[in-house]
């Protein structure tokens, strides 16, 4: 393994070892407590522009395979782990995590104190960083980082959204057949505005017996409304995605039109915040949040969901929406059902058999 050099926005300079791509990359440093699904996290468009500091001590033993991509490529800038294992034991693995990162051009950093980094992020908030196997000079790294665009200034949606519409044709992974279920015919069709949609979310919409058409984020509201009035579609979905929702003003204005047309809407992740903004509710940046698994409390259940965000919706949302799910530890809202509207939204992506999918499917015309 060669050396990799790291410079953080707060001035900290570190040296570690590299097991991924031989390159220089700039992104925002966050931490994530996920103990599995690392390949899925790396290829999730919601994690575009991020360096992900994984808190589990051992990473790599699962390897990587061609079936577990959440999109067509890796979106994370890099990952940081305490101990990397190049030998993998999962029966579905086709290559090591390190080889996967090299193919995807993603930096892999190991032999670094991830607990130390986690404490920094927890206390000071997520921050920009640069990592390089090519540049070792602290001042040069600092200069490049200072000249780079900040994460919250980047429009990841326009960069990552699909350019052409398509019908999503796969459902959930079937362990018996070792392949994804095929989409069946449905008389309920929804448009998914792709803000950075991940495959597993689209799969779950299919499992909810919906026909799923994925369209560019820039699709005009007037065109969507016309299709709804012509009974070509019965609802709209706003996917998850990366970046700062407050800079997406054009998209917010388009969603306002869709809301006014009384079209059923289901929004997750970034889409959750876009819908709030379209209802003139503030979305505020918070200092730090744990990326990864969170215990979420519903009316009668407690479930574990993945949440990746640095934003929160102002509590004034409770004037126009009922809170349906909250975080166990701080009781903050994470899912909403809007009053007098067929609109559901959640900070997380619901898992299989969630009642949220069923409720949305029932609202689709």
Secondary structure layout:
Elements: E1 2-8, E2 13-18, E3 24-32, H1 38-42, E4 50-54, E5 58-59, E6 78-80, E7 83-84, H2 97-104, E8 107-110, H3 114-124, E9 127-132, H4 138-147, H5 156-160, E10 166-168, E11 170-174, E12 179-182, E13 189-194, H6 199-207, E14 211-216, H7 221-229, E15 235-238, H8 249-260, E16 265-268, H9 270-278, E17 283-285, E18 292-297, E19 302-307, E20 311-313, E21 321-327, E22 333-338, E23 343-346, H10 355-363
Parallel strand pairs: 3-4, 4-6, 5-7, 6-8, 13-14, 13-15, 15-16, 16-23
Antiparallel strand pairs: 1-2, 1-9, 2-8, 3-9, 10-14, 11-12, 17-20, 18-19, 18-21, 21-22, 22-23
Helix pairs in contact: 7-8, 8-9
Structure description:
The longest helix is centred in the last third of the chain and has 12 residues, at 249-260. The chain starts with a strand and ends with a helix. The chain has 365 residues and is an alpha/beta fold. Helix 7 runs parallel beside helix 8. The strands form 5 sheets. Strands 10-14-13-15-16-23-22-21-18-19 form a 10-stranded mixed β-sheet, with helices on both faces. A 7-stranded mixed β-barrel has the order 1-2-8-6-4-3-9. The protein has 10 helices and 23 strands.
At a glance:
The chain is α/β, with parallel strands linked by helices.
Mean pLDDT: 93
Beta-strand fraction estimate: 25-35%
Note poorly predicted spans. Answer: none
What is the straight-line distance between the termini? 56 Å
Query: What sort of overall outline do the alpha carbons produce when their principal axes are compared?
Result: globular
Helix content: 10-25%
Q: Which class best fits the helix and strand makeup? A: alpha/beta
Largest sheet: 10 strands, mixed
The spatial strand order of the largest sheet comes to 10-14-13-15-16-23-22-21-18-19
Rg for CA atoms: 20 Å
Number of helices: 10
Q: What's the number of extended β-strand segments?
A: 23
């Amino acid at each position: 393994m060669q050396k990799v050099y790291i410079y953080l926005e707060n001035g900290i300079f570190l040296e570690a070892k590299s097991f991924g791509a031989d390159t220089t990359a700039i992104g925002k440093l966050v931490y994530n407590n996920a103990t599995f699904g690392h390949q899925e996290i790396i290829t999730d468009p919601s994690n575009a522009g991020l360096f992900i500091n994984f808190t589990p001590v051992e990473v790599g033993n699962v390897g990587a395979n061609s079936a577990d991509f959440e999109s067509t490529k890796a979106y994370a800038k890099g990952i940081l782990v305490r101990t990397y294992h190049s030998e993998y034991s999962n029966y579905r693995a086709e290559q090591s995590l390190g080889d996967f990162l090299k193919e995807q051009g993603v930096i892999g950093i190991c032999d670094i104190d991830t607990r130390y980094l986690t404490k920094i992020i927890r206390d000071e908030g997520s921050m920009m960083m640069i990592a390089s196997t090519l540049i070792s000079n602290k001042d040069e790294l600092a200069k490049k980082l200072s000249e780079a665009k900040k994460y919250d200034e980047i429009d990841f949606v326009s960069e990552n959204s699909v350019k052409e519409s398509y019908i999503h044709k796969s459902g959930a992974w079937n362990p018996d057949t070792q392949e994804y279920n095929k989409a069946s015919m449905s008389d309920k069709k929804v448009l998914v505005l792709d803000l950075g949609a991940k495959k597993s979310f689209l799969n779950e919409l299919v499992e909810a017996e919906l026909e799923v058409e994925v369209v560019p984020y820039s699709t005009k509201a007037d065109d969507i409304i016309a299709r709804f009035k012509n009974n070509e579609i019965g609802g709209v979905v706003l996917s998850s995605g990366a970046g700062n929702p407050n800079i997406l003003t054009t998209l917010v204005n388009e969603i306002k039109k869709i809301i006014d047309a009384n079209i059923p809407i289901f929004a997750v992740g970034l889409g959750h915040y876009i819908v709030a903004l379209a209802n003139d509710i503030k979305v505020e940046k918070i200092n730090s949040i744990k990326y990864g698994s969170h215990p979420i409390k519903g009316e009668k259940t407690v479930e574990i969901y993945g949440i990746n965000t640095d934003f929160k919706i102002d509590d004034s949302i409770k004037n126009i929406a009922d809170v349906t799910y909250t975080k166990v530890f701080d009781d903050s809202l994470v899912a909403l059902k809007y009053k007098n509207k067929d609109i559901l939204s959640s900070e997380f992506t619901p898992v299989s058999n969630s009642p949220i999918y069923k409720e949305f499917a029932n609202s689709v015309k």
